[in-house]
Design goal:
The complex is a heterodimer of chains A (614) and B (345). In chain A, the strands form 5 sheets. Chain A has a 7-stranded mixed sheet with strand order 11-10-12-13-15-14-21, with helices on both faces. Chain A has a 6-stranded mixed sheet with strand order 3-4-2-5-6-7, with helices on both faces. A 5-stranded mixed sheet of chain A has the order 18-20-19-22-23, with helices on both faces. Helix content of chain A is 36%, strand content 20%. In chain A, helix 1 (23-36) crosses helix 7 and helix 9 (238-253) packs parallel to helix 14 (379-394). By secondary structure, chain A is α/β, with parallel strands linked by helices. Chain A has 20 helices and 23 strands. Chain A starts with a strand and ends with a helix. Chain A is globular and about 90 Å long. Chain B has a domain at 12-222: Rossmann fold (3-Layer(aba) Sandwich), CATH 3.40.50. Chain B has 10 helices and 12 strands. In chain B, the strands form 2 sheets. Chain B has an 8-stranded mixed sheet with strand order 2-1-3-4-6-5-11-7, with helices on both faces. In chain B, strands 8-9-10 form a 3-stranded antiparallel sheet. In chain B, a hairpin with a 5-residue loop joins strand 8 and strand 9. Chain B is globular. The chains are: A alpha/beta (614), B alpha/beta (345). At the A-B interface, helix 1, strand 9, helix 9, helix 11 and helix 12 of A face strand 1, strand 2, helix 2, helix 4 and helix 9 of B.
Chain lengths: 614, 345
């Protein structure tokens, strides 16, 4: 039969199934196929902290959402147009997010009485009319996969496990994806077991052919490539980009990199990635705890390495004392906090921006550090370089606040030229700097106020440093009241002296009265909301902060230009608090802490109210 | 440690910093400092390649007084900080100075992990069985029932035996010495410095303010010969003024026991061998001492060879580097474009 082909400008698909159903992999492959076609993409994985929650239950549902379009997009999409539900739990957990008319593809084989009962369905939603508002496509995914593989030398279990590839094949057909990269991927992944390569490829093709032949799917869709800047792209998650940024910082500073880390969700992938790149002179140490991880990084920094530690909120809490020591020692150190929902263990696989207060203020004594945050997955690469730049130039700890949303989300990344990356080379102290030929470890650079980085092995510069208050210039222990006052102020001045680019304001109409100010991972949803409002003829300005300490020098002036400043954050108003205190601006906070990113729609609605009432 | 064929002709004076030493008069730390400063020239390592890292506590002021590189860090964390330094700078000689509270209480975790990894650190634990800097609370090595400011009716904690703990973590070099015996102290430092990997040295140190005389039985002429067991590699373990006591391994027993030499045949006396691979032997030695310090062995309990963490990590780095082609910038460009990429014209 001939299938109708319909053009779409954007689609949001959510793959949902049991934790063991391979939904992350399926979504990842679909994303890769889509990226190859030149669509702009944005993805959002959502999975439980449990590795395998009881099968078929609501807590065990794992999903992956991909948004692709023929124009540049900023978020993984608010509501899916298509839901692939591998079992009743996946249907039930995700149904609430679907708009009327959405397509639902269900694996009917899993809709057994037992599985339905597990999630509280008394009757099958496929039969009781409760899904009438949607376009439901019942597909016996498991049965058809097993049948497709009946001639092959694979166990029933392995055959059944290939059902995610059947689903991927079907969706790839529906959206006219190119599948060469997936076939190549399967050959790489199962290289050691050729029978699984064949089984998965067969399942994929069976799904594709099913779409082609069955009457249930009468329409095929196409999404044209987006107009994107020329260049070479790859799809990248925030954690992967951050790891590559650290590799790049090592190359561009010509320093060995030392990463001390303790496994913690959602930061562990950075450790995994960096442990593969030893050829760049990167040492990764999985330490005995968070404190040792930052301690070892600081010890390595003392020895002349680029010292880095990666963690999440609970880990930063443990590292606080060592970060304070680094403030006193005035050594370069990068602390990456991939934020997750807290307090305490909180929701380890869900996102939040609630560590800003801790990053800014969470240490004993006056212990200021630089704080920066990436705005998108690929921006994590550049944020890592910027964190290294500040740390190395200003000899200070820098906290980089990523979060689970950018860390695990992905987007196309226009690859930079290595030669265009900032030069981070440093100068170690080589000779005495004192008037009498002695070495003064706390004699400062007049501009940056940074002290010399004098590493062990340098003859004539032997010196002792420590956590006790130090006398200006000599670094000797000092309890002198004037000296302490001077040193506390100097450490604050050092951070204020960090060169930070001005914050840019996007105000295409030029007459906006409302400014929406954000930081970190809310950039996408805020940007999408602003775009939506402007398309509807409303005017508003957007500014987004990368540097949270020190803040850009022009921020006060920018804020003063607007009648209203709105600050959406995934916390209870931490940046808003800083802005109000610092600039005496009556900023309006907008806060949600659901463990999920803002949707563009909710921000659009909120901002519309503010703009209309401004 | 890299070869130093030419004598640097350093003296103890070269290792004294310009800082005024500020321990209480009479503190055992002075003797240890002098012994270390006297010993350092023997290493024949230039001062700039030596680093002392300490935690917090009286003993942890040590780095300020050494004219080498040094960090006075955070309570308990010196082994962790020193690990990062040692691994990333294998050209350095890294020493950790710590105390019983610093190493065994707040920093217990880092100590055992440094030891099991066999990081190339020389760890000197000054054990005075008391918290000195915080003015006299009981420590993790204080005796059960110890009366202190924080335990007016006696401590309810059983103490750690630092050597047993280190051996439990399978430390490759474990020794004990004493502040007042400079010759012995320096001989142990020498052995520790020569060891590749973690060297753990417990130094009994007198705190004359808060726990004076804690080790007097090992120092007083009247008791020391019968209390102190000197371990000499390859020698039968006998002690007492006239060698009247010895250490035996009775058949069927788990550990070692002290006997009168006259009552056993010479071949029953244990001949000390620090190179026994099984830590059980050194552990048994570490259990000989009794609460009143009777039968306290001194010397090198264990000295075995196992690749250091530093050497394994650095070998992994050099193997990876040897396989890499091109300048780092080229390799980075290759890494960025690895995987599925696409080009928009």
């Amino acid at each position: 039969m001939t299938k109708q082909v319909r053009q779409l400008d954007r689609v949001v698909i959510r793959f949902a199934g049991d934790s063991g159903d391979g939904m992350q992999l399926t979504g990842d492959r679909f994303t890769s196929e889509t990226a190859q076609l030149g669509n702009d993409i944005s993805t959002l994985p959502n999975f439980p902290a449990e590795i395998r929650a009881p099968a078929g239950t609501l807590p065990g549902v794992s999903s992956f959402q991909v948004h692709f379009a023929d124009y540049d997009i900023l978020t993984p999409g608010d509501a899916p147009n298509v839901l692939v539900a591998m079992n009743p739990a996946a249907l039930k957990a995700n149904l609430g997010d679907l708009p009327r008319g959405a397509d639902i593809i269900v694996n009917t084989d899993e809709f057994t009485r037992r599985n339905l009962a597990k999630v509280g369905y008394t009757a099958s939603p496929l039969e009781d009319g409760s899904l009438e508002a949607y376009s439901v496509h019942p597909v016996a995914l498991t049965t058809m996969t097993i049948r497709a593989l009946s001639e092959q030398e694979v166990s029933k279990k392995d055959a059944e496990r290939a059902k995610n590839m059947f689903a991927l094949g079907l969706l790839s057909w529906m959206y006219s994806r190119s599948y060469e990269s997936t076939l190549a991927f399967l050959e790489r992944k199962f290289a050691a077991r050729p029978e699984l390569v064949l089984a998965n490829i067969t399942a994929f093709k069976a799904g594709w052919n099913f779409g082609e032949t069955t009457e249930d799917f009468s329409v095929r869709y196409e999404v044209k490539p987006a107009k994107m800047k020329p260049g070479t792209y790859r799809n990248i998650t925030g954690n992967a980009a951050l790891a590559l940024g650290i590799v790049a910082a090592g190359v561009r500073s010509k320093l060995p990199v030392f990463l001390g880390a303790y496994p913690i969700t959602p930061a562990s992938d950075i450790l995994h990635e960096l442990s593969k790149h030893k050829r760049f002179g990167i040492t990764t140490m999985q330490a005995e705890d968070e404190i040792a991880a930052v301690g070892a990084a600081l010890g390595a920094a003392y020895g002349g390495a680029l010292g880095i530690t990666t963690t999440s909120g609970p880990g930063v809490a443990l590292k606080g004392e060592t970060i304070s020591l680094a403030v006193a020692l005035e050594l370069p150190l990068v602390i990456v906090d991939v934020q997750r929902a807290g307090p305490s263990t909180g929701m380890p696989t869900k996102t939040e921006q609630a560590d800003l207060n801790m990053a800014l203020f969470g240490r004993h004594g006056e212990a200021p550090v630089a704080v920066i945050a990436p705005r998108s997955p690929s921006d994590c690469f550049f944020a890592a370089l910027e964190a290294a730049r500040i740390a190395l130039t200003h000899r200070t700890p820098v906290i980089l606040l990523s979060d689970n949303y950018v860390a695990n989300g992905s987007e196309p990344w226009l690859l930079p030229e290595v030669a265009d990356l900032p030069d981070l080379s440093v100068q170690f102290a080589a000779e005495p700097n004192g008037p009498q030929g002695q070495f003064l470890p706390y004699l400062r650079d007049p501009e940056t106020l940074a002290r010399p980085w004098a590493i062990p092995g340098t003859p004539g510069l032997e010196h002792r440093i420590g956590g006790l208050e130090k006398a200006d210039k000599t670094g000797d222990i000092s309890y002198d009241p004037q000296n302490h006052d001077f040193m506390v102020r100097t450490r604050a001045a050092r951070i204020d002296a960090i060169s930070v680019p001005d914050v840019e304001v996007e105000d295409p109409d030029g007459d906006a009265r409302v400014l929406v100010l954000g930081w970190g991972s809310t950039y996408g949803p805020i940007g999408a909301a602003c775009r939506g409002l402007r398309q509807r003829g409303l005017t508003l300005a957007q500014a987004h902060l990368r540097h949270l300490n020190p803040l850009p020098a022009n921020l006060g002036e920018v804020l003063s230009r607007y009648d209203r400043v709105v600050i959406p954050e995934m916390n209870l108003g931490q940046l808003a608090h800083v802005i109000r205190a610092r600039y005496l601006v009556d900023a309006v906070p907008y806060n949600k802490v659901r463990g999920l990113p803002f949707t563009a729609a909710e921000l659009e609605q909120m901002l519309e109210d503010v703009v209309k009432n401004a | 440690m890299p070869e130093q064929p030419i004598s640097l002709k350093l003296t103890a004076k070269d290792f004294k910093s310009d800082q005024e030493v500020r321990w209480c008069p009479g503190c055992g730390d002075y003797a240890i400092l002098a012994a270390v400063q006297n010993f350092m020239p023997e290493l024949n390592i230039p001062r700039e390649r030596i680093v002392f890292v300490s935690g917090i506590g009286c003993s942890s002021r040590f780095p300020y007084y050494m004219n080498t590189y040094g960090i006075h860090s955070i309570h308990g964390r010196a082994p962790a900080i020193a690990t990062g330094l040692s691994v990333s700078r294998p050209d350095l000689s890294v020493w950790v100075v710590t105390g019983d509270g610093d190493a065994l209480s707040i920093g217990g975790n880092h100590l055992i992990h440094a030891l099991r990894r066999n990081v190339n650190l020389k760890i000197l634990l000054f054990n005075n069985r008391i918290y000195g800097l915080t003015k006299g609370q009981y420590s993790p090595t204080s005796e059960l029932g110890k009366i202190t400011k924080s335990t007016p009716v006696g401590s309810a904690d059983s103490p750690f035996n630092p050597l047993s703990l280190a051996l439990g973590a399978e430390a490759t070099f474990v020794a004990r010495t004493m502040d007042s015996d400079r010759r012995h102290l320096q001989s142990v430092l020498r052995a520790a410095a020569e060891h590749d990997g973690s060297a753990f040295v417990e130094i009994y140190q007198n705190c004359n303010i808060f726990n004076d005389g804690a080790f007097d039985q090992l120092k007083e002429p009247a008791t020391r010969d019968d209390y102190l067991i000197r371990l000499e590699h390859g020698q039968p373990i006998t002690f007492g003024k006239d060698g009247q006591f010895c250490v035996v391994h009775p058949p069927g027993a788990f550990g070692l026991e002290v006997r009168e030499t006259a009552g056993v045949s010479p071949e029953e006396i244990v001949v000390h061998d620090a190179t026994v691979t099984d830590p059980a032997y050194a552990f048994a030695l570490s259990r000989l001492a009794e609460a009143d310090l009777r039968h306290t062995p001194m010397g090198v309990f264990r000295s075995v060879r196992r690749p250091s963490y530093d050497s394994i990590i650095n070998e992994q780095l050099s193997t990876a580097r040897a396989k890499a082609n091109g300048a780092p910038e080229e390799q980075l460009a290759g890494l960025l474009t690895a995987g599925d990429t696409w080009t928009i014209m």
